[in-house]
Specification:
alpha/beta; 11 strands; elongated; disordered C terminus
Length: 319
């Protein structure tokens, strides 16, 4: 009799294995999801055992691991594996430079053909408001991005929003996390202060819920649906958002509230102007989140304040 045929073990389809691996990596705890300038991917030691189990699992584990690629310099994007063009959906870049450099280095996104999200962490101690111009190459990759998350822009004036709308026209979600916020009354970036701790989140759906100049420069983003602003705040201010938000607060500073809102007629008129503000075509929701900070820990670039607020005045005159 011939030797019995070897029994073949049943094999799971690759697509099912891919789903299992992805779900496993999603259950792993991130290292520091809210901490800027650090990777929030799970530890490699939690993923490595999968790469040792079999050839198929090694491929799928690497694919899941590099779905998010963490880069600490533009050089990290130049010599990536060819597979990253298929694997990587999210790029997390740490840019510690300054926009005062004469010849800034471009971050080249060419290798990441299926990129959907870009996260950029800046150094809040550096003048960096114009550095987003380093991330729009090549244009076809930047244009396909659906989500942008930016941390620690030193001077978040409306000019930053204009850069974003020009560089990333396909955005559906925009998340900005920063110490300062633009006041549409005095046209300067300010550190917000409140009478008491604000709620964890304020959500605007029926009104725009953005500083007017932010909304204006986001108008070209026809697919934008969600904007999330996370800002620093301190205590000792005049306004309490915890008790009520009848003024539909969108960044107004204490000095302007004290001086201009003393007249009830002005406050009513200001709120009505907010209700009438035109919104980007597809915008559904604006979320404000707050993180408590001490004022002495906040870096304010006075040169940016003078230069950009002056430029904003010129834009308003032109409008």
């Amino acid at each position: 009799m011939s030797e019995p045929a070897r029994i073949r073990r049943p094999q799971l389809p690759t697509e099912l294995l891919r789903d299992i691996v992805r779900r496993y990596t999603e259950t792993l705890l991130p290292r520091a999801p809210a901490k800027a300038k650090q990777s929030y991917k799970p530890l490699w030691r939690d993923v490595e055992p999968l790469t040792l189990a079999s050839k198929v699992l090694r491929q799928l584990a690497l694919e899941a691991w590099f779905e998010v690629y963490y880069a600490q310099s533009p050089d990290d994007l130049l010599n990536v594996w060819p597979e990253f063009g298929q694997w990587t959906r999210e790029l997390h870049c740490v840019e510690l430079g300054t926009d005062l450099q004469i010849r800034p280095v471009q971050w080249n996104l060419r290798a990441f053909r299926r990129l959907r999200k870009l996260r950029v962490d800046f150094d809040a101690a550096q003048s960096n408001a114009m550095l987003l111009m380093r991330f729009d190459h090549p244009r076809n990759i930047a244009a396909q991005l659906q989500e942008l998350e930016v941390h620690d822009v030193s001077w978040p004036s409306p000019m930053v929003l204009r850069l974003i709308s020009q560089a990333f026209p396909g955005l559906r979600t925009l998340k900005l996390s920063q110490d300062l916020i633009w006041c549409n009354l005095c046209n300067i970036c300010r550190f917000a202060t409140f009478k008491d701790h604000p709620p964890e989140e304020i959500v605007y759906e029926k009104v725009v819920g953005l500083p007017k100049h932010y909304a204006m420069y986001l108008m070209p983003l026809t697919k934008l649906r969600i904007v999330q602003l996370t800002i620093g705040y301190g205590l000792g201010g005049l306004k309490s958002l915890l008790q009520n938000n009848d003024m539909l607060w969108t960044g107004e500073c204490d000095a302007c509230i004290d001086m201009m809102f003393a007249e009830r007629d002005f406050e009513s008129e200001w709120v009505e102007r907010k209700r009438a503000t035109e919104r980007p075509p597809s915008l559904k929701c604006v979320r404000w989140r707050f993180r408590h900070k001490n004022l002495e820990d906040v870096v304010v670039d006075l040169e940016d304040e003078l230069e950009i607020s002056g430029g904003q005045d010129e834009d308003e005159d032109d409008a």
